[in-house]
């Protein structure tokens, strides 16, 4: 492949990927507890840098570099803004930590504190009724649906003036290892253990998405410009090659 075309194609693919990630962030800017994705880009090593065989590549092309390379998407775990709802079954966490839920036989973490009762009295997430909210012993919370609840700052749930359960509040040592499992659920890879956390639990509030739409729109426009620039370079190089083959190389 022509080296210039290779670099430009790398730029198109990388910025197309970044554009998709930013668009998904914008689409979830109103999703409670959503954590935005970050596209991590790095310089792609040249063939000589990868193989260590510097004498077998063109020394004029080596300083140009190998183009862009998209790394794995990272999760921005910074908290979003707190917003009042007046619903006592909504909770927002202030400080480090997550609610624990069980879905499809696996334990997940989330900052989405919008909860409802299912038909059996289990406390579940309102956007995912199959995700049962867990207590501090990692067991599903089952309550009397005929009685109102209050939730204290430490996560203790009270009905009729008596404590009946406590929200499971957990964290991990390295949040960067958490993986998105759909919706607002974060999965725990093998080898990542939960530990007890002690954030303040604010009943009647929710944590909004940590996506800033204006920042994401700015990033999206910048990405589109870079994508178009690389696409234009492919077009220019294609025209140059066309002239080289059909005009310069023509025998008079």
Average pLDDT, all residues? 88
Low-pLDDT parts are: none
How big a fraction of the residues is strand?
25-35%
Q: Cα distance, first to last residue?
A: 29 Å
**How would a textbook summarize the main sheet?**
9 strands, antiparallel
DSSP summary: helix tally: 3
Number of strands: 20
Describe the protein's topology.
Layout: H1 3-27, E1 37-38, E2 41-43, H2 47-51, E3 68-70, E4 74-75, E5 82-84, E6 91-94, E7 98-103, E8 106-110, E9 115-117, E10 123-125, E11 128-133, E12 150-151, E13 156-159, E14 162-166, E15 169-171, E16 179-180, E17 186-187, E18 195-196, E19 200-203, E20 205-207, H3 213-248
Antiparallel strand pairs: 1-4, 2-3, 5-20, 6-19, 7-8, 7-11, 7-15, 8-17, 9-10, 10-11, 12-13, 13-14, 15-18, 16-17
Describe the protein.
With 252 residues, the protein is α+β, with helices and mostly antiparallel strands. The chain has 2 domains: 112 residues, no CATH class; 126 residues, no CATH class. Helix content is 26%, strand content 27%. It is built from 3 helices and 20 strands. Strands 7, 8, 9, 10, 11, 15, 16, 17 and 18 form a 9-stranded antiparallel β-sheet that branches. A hairpin with a 4-residue loop joins β12 and β13. α1 runs antiparallel to α3. It is elongated.
């Amino acid at each position: 492949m022509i080296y210039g075309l290779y670099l430009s194609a790398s730029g198109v693919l990388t910025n197309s990927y970044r554009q998709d990630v930013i668009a998904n962030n914008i689409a979830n800017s109103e999703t409670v507890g959503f954590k935005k994705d970050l596209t991590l880009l790095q310089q792609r090593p040249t063939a000589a840098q990868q193989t260590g065989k510097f004498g077998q590549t063109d020394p004029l092309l080596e300083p140009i570099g190998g183009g862009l390379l998209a790394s794995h998407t990272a999760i921005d775990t910074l908290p979003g803004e707190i917003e009042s709802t007046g619903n006592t079954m909504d909770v927002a966490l202030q400080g480090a930590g997550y609610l624990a839920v069980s879905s499809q036989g696996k334990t997940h973490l989330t900052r989405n504190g919008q909860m409802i009762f299912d038909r059996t009295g289990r406390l579940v997430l309102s956007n995912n009724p199959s995700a049962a909210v867990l207590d501090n012993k990692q067991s599903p919370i089952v309550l009397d649906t005929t009685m109102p609840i209050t939730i204290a700052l430490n996560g203790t749930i009270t009905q009729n003036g008596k404590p009946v359960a406590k929200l499971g509040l957990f964290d991990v040592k390295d949040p960067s290892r958490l993986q998105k499992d759909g919706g607002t659920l974060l999965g725990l890879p093998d080898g990542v253990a939960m530990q007890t956390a002690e954030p303040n639990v604010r009943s009647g509030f929710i944590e909004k998405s940590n996506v800033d739409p204006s920042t994401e729109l700015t990033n999206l426009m910048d990405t589109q410009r870079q994508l178009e620039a690389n696409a234009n370079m492919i077009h220019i190089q294609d025209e140059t090659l066309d002239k080289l083959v059909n005009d310069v190389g023509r025998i008079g």
